[in-house]
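Q: I have 221 residues here and want to know how they pack in 3D. Can you give me a structure?
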Amino acid sequence: MTRPHPLKAAVRALVVAAALALGAPGLSAPALAAASVAPHDNDDFSRLVAQAEADDPATDFRALRFAWLTSAAKKRGGDTLALTQKLAGAVRARKDAEVAAIARQIIAIDYTDMRAHKYLRQACAILKDQVCADHEHFVEFGLLKSIVGVGRDGRSLATAWEVISIPEEYFIVEMAGLRSSQQALVFDNDKPYDVLTVTTEDGKTMSVYFDIAAFFGHELE
């Protein structure tokens, strides 16, 4: 019996989980609506975030991610690096209420941050706020499926996953149960790609390809 390619199997698991999340019935109003993370800039990004916050199964999460790159919210910026470090500390200390609060601060700055949505989902579940946990599951896996569930497998330049940031690359690798050991920048027909060398749980080494054309050269803008 032929064993499936380890990366293909990992991606299939991610896509199934994402499909289950997006296939769930519409949820009631997300928890803690008073602490809204949605921007109000009258641009495509704000509109799409509002749609996601309403748990609309028709939300185009790929469009949402790419709209972030030219959004007023991104131009305003914010220190997510310091908050991400605080979030990691709160996770390690198992301070779930603090994890939720910090994750919301990050999401309010950068709604595309899948790691923040993941930790908020987990914290809400522990805090028994199931409405919040279900909502964050919908958003986290909606964002994830918009990368790995669109007919690309990340196994070659031709089928590289389209990402809008380096953190997206590492989140996908971690969610697939892979461990990264090296990152290389390559060009094909003047188009930039990141190639991550990763190790599977059973010790096999492989390469994962990411199309970074959307943000390459604009990281500091």
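Q: Anything worth noting?
A: The two ends are 50 Å apart (CA to CA). The chain has a mean pLDDT of 87.
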